Amino acid sequence: MLKNSPQGFSKAIVSLVFALTLFASCSKSYDPANLINDKVALLTGQPDSVNWVLNAIQVNNASDTAAKGAVKIYHADGSFTDNLGFTGFWTMYSRDSLIESSHPCVNPDAPYTTQNYHIDRLDKGRLQLTYTSADKKIKLLYDANK
């Protein structure tokens, strides 16, 4: 500041700069729905579709590759299918939670079962879901195959 400026002038300038910075930084709004929509787009592969290929199942950190190669497709209408004949419905109610309702077998008259998954990772190339059953922690590792 200039030596000849009044003492209160520098305080006023600092206060004005602080207020403008605060206003500019707080004017942006956060919309959690956008984050969920982005995750849904990754899961479904929008605008195209993505095939999620099961790479491994980890049960309490022990790998099981018996189901390796199973393919699941999440559709934008909230349904899913896989190459084993299973069908069902899915919803993502938060950025890290996925709920699937499906038939426990390929019989279309069978009752639906519901499974809650935690989404550990979801990006263009990888999907990792975790759930617990009894005392077992089960992790499903999928790779994207467009």
Key descriptive features of the protein:
alpha+beta, eight-stranded antiparallel β-barrel, elongated, 9 strands, 2 helices, 23% helix, 146 residues
Write a compact overview of the structure shown.
Helix content is 23%, strand content 42%. By secondary structure, the protein is α+β, with helices and mostly antiparallel strands.
Structure write-up:
This protein has 146 residues and is an alpha+beta fold. It contains 2 helices and 9 strands; from the N terminus they run ααβββββββββ. The chain has helices at residues 7-26, 32-44, and strands at 51-59, 62-64, 71-74, 79-82, 87-94, 97-102, 113-122, 126-133, 136-145. An 8-stranded antiparallel barrel has the order 1-3-4-5-6-7-8-9. A hairpin with a 2-residue loop joins strand 1 (51-59) and strand 2 (62-64). The termini are far apart. The model has no long low-confidence stretch (mean pLDDT 84).
The profile of the biggest β sheet is: 8 strands, antiparallel, barrel
Spans of at least 5 consecutive residues whose pLDDT stays below 50 are none
Radius of gyration: 25 Å
First-residue to last-residue Cα separation:
61 Å
With strands numbered from the N-terminus, the spatial order across the biggest sheet is: 1-3-4-5-6-7-8-9
Provide a count of the helices: 2
Mean pLDDT: 84
Order of helices and strands: HHEEEEEEEEE
Q: How helix-rich are the residues, as a percent range?
A: 10-25%
Q: How many beta-strand segments?
A: 9
What structural category characterises the helix and strand content? alpha+beta
Overall, the morphology is: elongated
DSSP strand content: 35-45%
